[in-house]
Design goal:
By secondary structure, the protein is mainly beta. It is built from no helices and ten strands. The chain has one domain.
Length: 126
């Protein structure tokens, strides 16, 4: 299942779980342009719905997994993994909306390249 929340200034945060990876997509939808960037973080399989908090100007994503709680920080257009729980005083929970799973597509692995054919021998110069 994928989830989405609106951040600020027309930005959206989308979260999905693909096996042990949490997929994070940030997108901006303006009048004339749309930008999007995605990242994947090893968190483990989700055991519950993620929770997003607004913490001053940043956002914190809390994901519960069989490995314990995992945290991601969204700062502007950058998402990073945190290796410990951040100070959450003053945090406000942001409502998530459930989305169809198709919005964050799983990347198709690249096919291996075919071996190159050896070069043909050059003829002697005349």
């Amino acid at each position: 299942m994928n989830y989405e929340c609106e951040l600020e200034d027309g930005r959206y945060l989308e979260l999905g779980n693909d096996g042990d990876q949490t997929m994070v997509s940030l997108s901006t939808q303006g009048k004339r342009q749309q930008q999007s960037q995605s990242n994947a973080f090893f968190t483990g399989l989700w055991s519950t719905t993620p929770v997003v908090y607004r913490l001053e100007k940043d956002y914190i994503v809390r994901v519960e997994t069989s490995h314990g709680a995992r945290f991601l920080r969204v700062e502007g257009n950058r998402t990073t993994r945190l290796y410990r729980e951040p100070e959450m005083s003053g945090a406000i929970e942001v409502k998530l909306k459930e989305l169809p799973a198709r919005l964050i597509p799983r990347m198709k692995p690249m096919e291996p390249m075919r071996p190159m054919e050896p070069m043909k021998s050059m003829r002697p110069m005349k």
